[in-house]
Specification:
mainly alpha; Tyrosyl-Transfer RNA Synthetase; 3-stranded parallel beta sheet
C-alpha cells in the first residue's frame, strides 16, 4: 500500500442492507472516496452487526453484501487503495470482541442512546438479546483491531465512538497500552430527501437507487414532492424554501441553471413537471458511468467474491498481528 498521511489508519463499515441509494452516495461513499486517497483505509461489510436486528432472517445477507460491494466499487472505492472486506471473514474480530466484553461494564452499554432508541423504533422485533446490547463492544473490536486512529462519524454517532474510546482506555490501563485511542473525523452527513420529502431510506420506499434503470428513475422523479403551495403552473413557486425536489436539483444541476430555475419558478414560467424531467435526466446522466461499471463488474459472479477475499487476506494479516499482541499482554507473556 502506498505511503499516505503519516500512515494514519481509518476504519469504517456499513451494514449490508442491499443495493445502495443516493443518500448512501452523498452521505458516506463520497467521503470514503476522499479518505482512501489520504489515509490507510479499512472499509468493511458489517454482516455480524446486521444480525443484531436480523437474527431471525439472515438468509439474504450474503446477496446484500454482493449488491452493496458492487455499488462501492462502481462509485470508485478502490481495493488497491483501501482494504475492503467482509467482517465475518476475519474471525479475530470475534476473539477480540469476546475479550473486550469481559472488561466492559454493563452500565456503559445500557446508557448507549441508540440502545433505547432502536428498541422503541423496532417495537415489533424482540431486541432483548445480548448481541443487541453488546454490539458496541463488537464495534470497538472492529475499530481497534486495526489500530485505527480515526473513524468518520456524524454528530449523532459520537456517543458510540466515545464508548469505543472508553473501552480502549480500559484495556490499555488493565493490560498494556497496545491500542491508539481512536478519534472522530466529524463528517457532515446530509439528510437527502426521498421522493416523499422524508429522509431517503429503503425502509420508507422513497429511495432512488444507484442501480435503478433510466425508466425507473424518471418514473420515480415524476412522483416526487415539489412545492405543495404551488398547485398550478400559473402560481409562483419558491423552490429554495418550499420545494423538496430542489434539494436534488442542487446536487445535479450547474449553478447557472439553478439560478434560472429559481427565477422562472418564482415568475411562474417553469412548471414542476418540466422541472422534474430535467432533474431526472441529470440524475440519469450522473449515474450512467457508475451503472456501466456496475454492469461490467456483474458479468462474472466471482469478481466481487475475489475482490473481497483479496481484501480479507490483507485485513487478516493486520488483525492477527494485533491479536498476538493482545494475547501476549493478556497472559503476561514475555
Amino acid at each position: 500500500m502506498e505511503e499516505k498521511k503519516e500512515q494514519l489508519r481509518i476504519l469504517s463499515g456499513m451494514r449490508p442492507t442491499g443495493k445502495l441509494h443516493l443518500g448512501h452516495l452523498h452521505g458516506v461513499l463520497k467521503n470514503w472516496l476522499k479518505l482512501q486517497d489520504q489515509y490507510q483505509c479499512f472499509f468493511f461489510a458489517a454482516d455480524w452487526h446486521a444480525l443484531t436486528t436480523k437474527y431471525d432472517s439472515p438468509f439474504d445477507i450474503p446477496q446484500n453484501i454482493t449488491d452493496m460491494a458492487l455499488d462501492w466499487f462502481s462509485v470508485g472505492i478502490d481495493p488497491e487503495k483501501a482494504v475492503v472486506f467482509v467482517q465475518s471473514d476475519i474471525k479475530a474480530h470475534a476473539e477480540l470482541h469476546l475479550l473486550l466484553s469481559m472488561i466492559t461494564p454493563v452500565s456503559w452499554l445500557e446508557r448507549n442512546p441508540t440502545y433505547k432508541e432502536q428498541q422503541q423504533e423496532l417495537k415489533g422485533k424482540d431486541l432483548a438479546t445480548y448481541g443487541f446490547l453488546g454490539y458496541p463492544v463488537l464495534q470497538a473490536a472492529d475499530i481497534i483491531i486495526y489500530k485505527a486512529h480515526k473513524v468518520p462519524v456524524g454528530q449523532d454517532q459520537l456517543p458510540h465512538l466515545e464508548l469505543t474510546r472508553e473501552i480502549t482506555r480500559r484495556f490499555n490501563y488493565l493490560y498494556k497500552p497496545i491500542f491508539p485511542v481512536p478519534e472522530a473525523i466529524l463528517t457532515e452527513i446530509p439528510k437527502l430527501p426521498g421522493l416523499d420529502g422524508r429522509k431517503m431510506s429503503k425502509s420508507y420506499n422513497n429511495a432512488i437507487f444507484l442501480s435503478d434503470s433510466e425508466s425507473v428513475i424518471k418514473q420515480k422523479i415524476s412522483t416526487m414532492v415539489t412545492d405543495v403551495e404551488r398547485p398550478r403552473k400559473s402560481d409562483p413557486g419558491d423552490p429554495e424554501n418550499r420545494c423538496v425536489a430542489f434539494n436534488l436539483h442542487k446536487l445535479y444541476l450547474p449553478e447557472d441553471r439553478l439560478k434560472e430555475i429559481v427565477e422562472d419558478c418564482k415568475a411562474a414560467k417553469l412548471g414542476c413537471v418540466q422541472c422534474k424531467k430535467e432533474l431526472a435526466n441529470a440524475i440519469v446522466e450522473f449515474l450512467r458511468p457508475i451503472q456501466e461499471k456496475r454492469a461490467e463488474l456483474s458479468k462474472d459472479p466471482n469478481t466481487i467474491k475475489d475482490i473481497l477475499h483479496f481484501g480479507a487476506q490483507k485485513a487478516k494479516i493486520v488483525a492477527e498481528a494485533t491479536m498476538e499482541e493482545v494475547r501476549n499482554a493478556l497472559w503476561n507473556r514475555a
